[in-house]
Amino acid sequence: MEKELTLRSGAVIHAITRKEADAKNYLTRHTLSQLHLMPSGEPVAFEVSDNGSLIYYFDPEKVVEAPVEMWYNPTSRKETIVLESGSVIEKMSIKRAAACNYYSEEKLKRMNYEVVEEPVAYTYRADRSILFFYDKKTAKRLPLLCVRCGKDIRYKKKLCEKCYEKEMEIRREEGDRVRAASYGMDKKKVLFFDLELTGFYDHDEILSITIIDGNGDMVMDTLVRPEHTKKWTRTEKIHGITPAMVTDAPTLAELTPRIKEIFENADNLIAYGVSTDFGHIKYIYETEEERNLLHSKVRCCANEYVRYIHEHRPDLQHASLIDAMDCFGIEWEGVPHSSIADTFACRKVWNVLFPNYYA
After folding, report:
1. Looking at the chain, which terminus has fewer C-beta neighbours within 10 angstroms, N or C?
2. Residue 144: CB atoms within 10 Å
3. CA–CA gap between residue 265 and residue 262 (Å, rounded)
4. Alpha-carbon span 150 to 172, nearest angstrom
5. Which uninterrupted H or E stretch holds 48?
6. pTM of the full structure
7. How does pLDDT run across 19-50, given as a tens digit for each residue?
8. What's the distance, Cα to Cα, between the start and end of the chain in Å?
9. 307: which residues sit within 8 A by CB, 6+ positions away?
10. DSSP string of 57-109, one letter each residue
11. Residue 275: what pLDDT?
C-alpha cells in the first residue's frame, strides 16, 4: 500500500487510517457534501479503499460553503448511490459537474489525467448505465507526449528528445547557411550605432550617440543634452553619464540634420537591441513614411545572437551584449554600457556571426 503521495503542486501527503483522520477532524468529500461545504485547498491526507481508489481527507480549516445549486433543489429529491468504500455520492448533470471541475474518466484521459480518487458524483447515460465523475484537481497529471511522433515523453518545445534534436539539426543547418552566406555589403554603408538614455521608457531622452561604420571608423560620437530631463540617477549608475557632463553638449534637435544625413547614406543600421534604440531615434523623423524607411534599414544583432545560441548553445540562458562578448571570447574596447564601447562590441559580435557580410 502506498504510504505517501505527491500532489500536482509538489506537496507530499501521507496515508492515514479512518480512525487517525477522525482524531484530526479531517473531512472526506462525502462529509463535506453533507455539510454543504467544498474544499478550498488541497487534500492533507489520503486512505486507500478496498477497491484501490483513493479517499482524500481535507482540513476543516480550508473549506468554503458550496454554491446553493449544488445542495439545494426544492422541486426534486436528491438521488445518491453508495460506493464500495461506503461514501455516498450525488447524481448531477454533466453541465453541473463540469462547473465543479468534475469529469468522466474517459474525458480526463483525453485531457491527459489519470483517475486515482474514487468518484465524487455520477449521472446516467442514455442506456441507463452509470457514468462516474472524478475531480480534476485530484487526478494525476500524466506526462505529455511529443506532438510530432506521439510516442515519447516531451523533452523541449513540446517535442521528445529525438524529435527535438532532429529539429535542432535542421535549424542549425539553416542558421549556419544564413550566417555563412555572402552579402556583398559595402563597409562604409553598414553602420553600427548605440544610444545611452536617461531611463528605460519611451518618454526618456537620449544622452549619447555613437555611430561607426563596418571598418570600425568613427562616424559620430557625441553626448546629447536632454531638453526636459534634469537628472537620471538610476541609469547614471549604469552608463556613468552625469548631468554635468552634458551641460555644454548639443541637443538632439541640433544633431538631427547630421544624423539624418548619415542614416540616409547607409544601407544597413545595426544595433544590439533594436527595439530600444530605434524606439528613440525614430522620433527625429516626423512622418510615418520616413520612420518606416529607417526601420527597413535596421538589423538587430541581439536577435541574430539569440538565434545562434538557440541553435548551438541552448545551455546559455542570457543574451545581453556582455553575454555575447563572453560567448565568443571577444575583448572589450572601453567600458561596457557606454555607447562607444557597446557600438564597437556590437560590430565585433556581428562580424563573428556574419563573417562574409562584406564585399
Report:
1. N
2. 11
3. 6
4. 24
5. strand 45-48
6. 0.65
7. 999 999 999 988 888 888 888 888 999 998 87
8. 73
9. 175
10. EB-TTSEEEPPHHHH--TTSPPPEEE-TTS-EEEE--HHHHHHTTEE-HHHHH
11. 85
